[in-house]
């Protein structure tokens, strides 16, 4: 089955100036993917005639569907309608249906219906008008040589309503679209290049209709398998077969699928093993506790935690030995070893976790530079500690340390 390709074109100087954020394109891409239409490009152009016409021509060459948002107001800088009329060599006419709708829209709200408002009803004669029940700017549909242009308002709630109720069903009627099936495999504890090297032979043997993409983020890598075909159930089965072939290679790094977060996966492990956890955080300032408790139902396994930044609190509240800190410092393997064990005892938890380090941007020494972090896991039978050498960026260090602690919990629970 032939792929159906789309390009999304947003029009407006305000987007290029950074005065507003284009949230429409992301939403549209998601919705198009659901009906088997692949977005191949997103383009933004300003309110300039030549740029708009050039963007129309280029998009028509590349894509089967060109979805346009913005530039539909009644003022002189709103050029989408006149440029569509020029591009399709069509006269602009006053559409009676749109005129009545706009007139009623203003009068029903007790507002004056002006000559400027009337201009909203001017549309290319060639266009099929799509009603906008939430606003005054109409959407319009154009067909030429088996390709489709659709112009919609840039106001997000208006665009979403038009696209959901009218445009997407119309696209499905016009085109025979394949299924596009995605599966995300989430990994932690291994870099993108190292993971790719491990999976290179498996990737090389993927069927032609299944593709692999690496999606790295802070401390994690997502593998996206995308399959194209005519039957969703068949694609689902075929993708799962490939995941089953991949797991023996990279299983120890995989923590979940699709929308599952690392903290959610850990919560599921704690529930499955009927374990509770407590946290003592110095350099992460409670961020690990925030991640754990962001999951609904975390009260079933999270006992509580401390943020003992000051050494007095480590000693007097958490009961870390003073001589440990005097001999080794708060940023040390010995300190986090005690912190994890003491917080586990203090909160009567099965597991204790801890972090202590120099998050930055200052406070480092030649022996312990910024980014030196120690983390620990204790469960009464074993205490696992790890030294991290991270960056000079404070926020990044907090995020990376939190991921490392959570991954330490995951690996310990899975052994």
Q: How are the SSEs ordered, and which strands pair?
A:
Elements: E1 4-11, H1 13-16, H2 24-34, E2 37-45, H3 49-62, E3 65-69, H4 80-87, E4 92-94, H5 96-107, H6 115-118, E5 122-124, E6 128-130, E7 139-144, E8 147-152, H7 156-174, E9 179-188, H8 192-204, E10 210-217, E11 220-229, H9 232-250, E12 254-257, H10 262-272, E13 277-281, H11 287-293, E14 302-306, H12 311-316, H13 322-328, H14 333-346, E15 351-357, E16 372-378, E17 383-389, H15 394-414
Helix pairs in contact: 2-7, 3-4, 8-9, 10-15
Brief digest:
The protein is of the alpha/beta class. Helices cover 41% and strands 26% of the residues.
Write up this protein:
- The structure is a single chain.
- With 415 residues, the chain is an alpha/beta fold.
- The chain folds into three domains: 4-174, Molybdenum Cofactor Biosythetic Enzyme, Chain A; 179-257, Alpha-Beta Plaits; 264-414, CinA-like (Maf protein, Alpha-Beta Complex), CATH 3.90.950.
- 41% of the residues lie in helices and 26% in strands.
- The protein is built from 15 helices and 17 strands.
- Strands 2-1-3-8-7-6 form a six-stranded mixed sheet, sandwiched between helices. Strands 14-13-15-16-17 form a five-stranded mixed sheet, sandwiched between helices.
- A hairpin with a 2-residue loop joins β10 and β11.
- α10 runs parallel beside α15.
- The longest helix is centred in the C-terminal third of the chain and has 21 residues, at 394-414.
- The model has no long low-confidence stretch (mean pLDDT 95).
Number of strands: 17
Write down the domain tally.
3
Judging by the overall fold, what is the CATH architecture of the largest domain? 3-Layer(aba) Sandwich
Q: Tell me about the largest β-sheet.
A: 6 strands, mixed
Beta-strand content estimate: 25-35%
* Amino- and carboxy-terminal Cα gap: 46 Å
| Structural class category | alpha/beta
Can you tell me the overall shape?
elongated
Strand order of the largest sheet: 2-1-3-8-7-6
Helix content: 40-55%
Mean pLDDT: 95
What is the name of the CATH superfamily of the largest domain? MoaB/Mog-like domain
Whole-number radius of gyration? 29 Å
Tell me the quaternary state: single chain
Low-confidence stretches: none
CATH topology of the largest domain: Molybdenum Cofactor Biosythetic Enzyme, Chain A
Quick one: CATH class of the largest domain? Alpha Beta
């Amino acid at each position: 089955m032939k792929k159906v390709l789309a390009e999304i074109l947003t029009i407006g100087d305000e987007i290029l100036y950074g005065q507003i954020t284009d949230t429409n394109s992301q939403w549209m891409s998601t919705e198009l993917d659901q009906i088997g239409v692949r977005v191949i490009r997103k383009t933004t152009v300003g309110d300039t005639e030549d740029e708009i016409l050039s963007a129309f021509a280029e998009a028509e060459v590349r894509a089967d569907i060109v979805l346009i948002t913005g530039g539909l107001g009644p003022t002189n800088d709103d050029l989408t309608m006149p440029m569509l009329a020029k591009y399709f060599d069509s006269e602009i006419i006053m559409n009676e249906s749109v005129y009545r709708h706009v007139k009623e829209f203003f009068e029903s709200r007790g507002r004056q219906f002006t000559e400027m408002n009337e201009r909203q009803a001017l549309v290319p004669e060639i266009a099929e008008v799509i009603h906008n029940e939430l606003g005054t700017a109409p959407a319009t549909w154009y067909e030429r040589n088996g390709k489709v242009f659709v112009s919609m308002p840039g106001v997000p709630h208006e665009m979403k309503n038009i696209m959901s109720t009218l445009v997407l069903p119309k696209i499905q009627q016009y085109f025979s679209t394949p299924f596009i099936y995605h599966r995300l495999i989430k990994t932690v504890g291994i870099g993108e290049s190292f993971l790719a090297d491990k999976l290179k032979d498996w990737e090389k043997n993927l069927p032609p209709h299944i593709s692999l993409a690496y999606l790295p983020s802070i401390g994690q890598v997502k593998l996206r398998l995308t399959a194209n075909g005519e039957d969703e159930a068949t694609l689902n089965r075929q993708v799962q077969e490939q995941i089953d072939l991949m797991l023996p290679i990279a299983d120890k790094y995989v923590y979940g699928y699709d929308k599952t977060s690392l903290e959610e996966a850990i919560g599921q492990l704690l529930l499955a093993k009927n374990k509770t956890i407590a946290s003592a955080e110095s350099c992460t300032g409670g961020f690990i506790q925030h991640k754990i408790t962001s999951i609904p139902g975390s009260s079933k396994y999270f006992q509580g935690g401390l943020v003992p930044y000051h050494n007095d609190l480590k000693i007097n509240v958490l009961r870390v030995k003073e001589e440990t800190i005097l001999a080794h410092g708060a940023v040390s393997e010995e300190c986090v070893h005690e912190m994890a064990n003491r917080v586990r005892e203090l909160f009567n938890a099965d597991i204790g976790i801890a972090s202590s380090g120099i998050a930055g941007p200052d406070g480092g020494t030649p022996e312990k530079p910024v980014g030196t972090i120690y983390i620990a896991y204790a469960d009464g039978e074993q205490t696992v500690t790890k030294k991290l050498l991270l960056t000079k960026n404070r926020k990044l260090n907090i995020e990376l340390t939190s991921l490392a602690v959570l991954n330490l919990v995951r690996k310990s629970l899975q052994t």
